[in-house]
Amino acid sequence: MKTITICGGGSLGHVIAGWLSAQGHAIVNILTGKPEKWQHEIMVDTPDGKVLCGDIAKITNTPEEVIPESDVVLLCLPGFLIARQLESIKPVLKPTTFVGCVFASTGFFFEAFNILGHKQPLWGFQRVPFISRVDEYGKSAHLLGYKKSHNIAVENVGDDAKNAFVKVMEDWFERPISLLRNYYEASLTNSNPLLHTSRLFTMFGDENGEKVYDRMILFYEEWTEAAADMYIKMDQEFFSLLKVLPVSDGYLPTALEYYDSHDAKSLAEKLRSIDGFKGITSPMLKVGECWVPDFESRYFTEDFPYGLRYIWQLAHENGIACPTIDKVYEWGMTKVQKK
Fold it and tell me: What pLDDT sits at residue 211?
């Protein structure tokens, strides 16, 4: 495998394009709706002070120009754009191209099975491989944090092909990679779909109307104990669902295990202290002298209908009681649908 096409121009698309091309891991193409804003040279700075200088081979908004030559396709897109992108590349895909998603918990596998079927090789990360941020769009980005290892799911190919693909990804991303048992283990995560939504509900949800603030709130650095408690309760309901699904025991740590915490207080303290999260603001807009929720932010438009939705749906299909998830999901969906 030599050629990858990255679909999307977000922060992860920038960083992965720079990472793979600068270090000679792959020939990198970009499929984006804004090709005129990209340059072929891309710069990525890293936490250890290095600056990676990558070279993008092709930049286009036309699938026919890059998809047929691609050995790997990686969608770096919000959930609401996944189906549209899959439909656009389907007519020109090689049957051997591995089509994947940088963060599978926004509905990628559910959409891909429906659109591409059960013969096209599919793959997806359980969690994003980097913490990243765009510096200058189409030109430079910041790699803010690494993961020690990665988990991916691979579907629609045999075991030998799965293992060979894992080896390629280990070479490309320079980290150990574990192969998950199935797509559920990549699609269902207690990361953003629970992490973000619990914070949003406790920040903005109010029975007497929407809360307003007199300033912009930092999303992680001001994480509250109430948000941590809500996250823990949602996580407990989520793990009740996992018990009835065909997933491996222990494939995913609980929220408390992952963040090395033991209760809401220590979890809130941990989330406030993570360097890679520092400076991240909340989805808010200034209206007059006040700050209010921005319901058009991806925190809302992605994490409720394309993240938490699948957990909520599977819980109800399997008869799992999830009162906290119900409350958060139903609140969030009313806000998304009103936008």
Answer: 81
Which residues on adjacent β-strands are paired with residue 98? 72
Q: Dig out the tokens for 244 from the structure.
A: 């009835």
In angstroms, rounded to a whole number, what is the distance separating the alpha carbons of residues 106 and 102?
10
**Between the CA of residue 178 and those of 139, 167, 264, what are the distances in Å?**
32, 10, 30
Residues 6+ apart with CB under 8 A from 44: 14, 15, 18, 19, 22, 51, 52, 54, 140, 141, 142, 143
Where residue 271 falls among pLDDT bands split at 50, 70, 90? very high
What DSSP state is assigned to residue 306? I
Q: How far is CA 71 from CA 97, 277, 304, in A?
A: 5, 33, 32
pLDDT for 6 beyond 60: yes
Q: Amino acid letter at 120?
A: Q
Spatial CA neighbour of 105 closest among 292, 1, 238, 272? 238
**Helix (H), strand (E) at residue 316:** helix 309-317
* Dist CA 39 CA 9 (whole Å): 12
Selection from 47, 9, 39, 1 nearest residue 165 by Cα? 1
Instruction: Name the token pair of 290.
Output: 């006040």
